[in-house]
Give the backbone structure.
Amino acid sequence: MSAQFQAYQIGKSDSGQRCSLTQLEDDDLMAGDVTVRVEYTTLNYKDGLALTGRSPIIRKFPLIPGIDFSGTVIESSHADFGEGDAVILNGFGVGEDHSGGYAQRARVSGDWLVPVPEGLDMRSAMAIGTAGYTAMLSVLALEDHGIGPDDGDLLVTGAVGGVGSIAVAVLGKLGYRVVATTGRMQEREFLLGLGATEVLERAEFAEKARPLGKERWRGAIDVAGGNTLANVLSQLSRSGAVAVCGLAESMSLPTTVAPFILRGVTAYGIDSVMAPLARRKLAWQRLAADLDLDLLDELCFDLDFHDLPQAAEDILDGKIRGRAVIKVP
Ligand code: NDP
């Protein structure tokens, strides 16, 4: 008999899309070779867009939203996973065109799953979530570029946000001199506590960039795009690199080729959704090793599963501080 479970489901009709908490059966899940009892999920900006319908994130209807989750395997025909395994899923279009984590059960391809690494539990995995994992992909890009802790200052933009805060915490623990930028200077002490050595006003990077500025940064992690990223590029030192992972300011990039052809700088694109499995596993293992888990408590708060619809509105309106961790009932 097909088991029943609770899920948020987004449907579409002539009057638009609608999200409701409903009772589903295993047969309602999409195809996949691993079924997971979802233990924890989280709320990302993208989930806010999906739940409210403010942006066309969902590409198949009806669909269970939620772009990341951790949970326990309850059934598997995939060679790498068996009953009882603790797993993490983020990306691969889950919560966009394949049903995701806002449900008691999920059925997915085992090729998308990462085992919860030693040192993390299912809750901490979701406290880190897609944002923290993206931060680690960015750190890996700078390390692969050959930038070590003694090579000079690193800049992290949007430092109070999800990606920025974990990037600051990881780089700080690894011994880098991290300069953080924020529009919320009242959070300066918080950023210093996380591991930043200096905190700058976001406004310093908001004006139109010159083709080349003073060389200030050996490397950078940028979540903003727009003028901020253009200024970062013009301030990177010779052969420096920036991990480009977001568009919090803008999708546009009003820059010139000068930093690339006159200083040999490199911009690495960070795509968390389709990153290859080996890279994902490495990122999660490194998070287990290089993130001070005590700091996570300061970075996240618990959100009730039933409060997700309101919280989705709140995250889009900029009313949420820190990362929401949701225990699925
Ligand atoms: P958050 O909303 O948590 O943080 C974004 C931060 O950006 C804000 O906290 C703020 O930092 C800063 N910011 C906001 N507006 C501006 C602005 N106008 N100019 C400069 N900085 C600004 O988001 P996340 O950290 O979760 O995600 C950051 C970005 O990365 C987003 O654009 C997101 O879409 C993207 N992303 C990309 C992924 C990928 O695969 N490449 C994966 C995950 C996220 P502060 O408060 O310190 O000023």
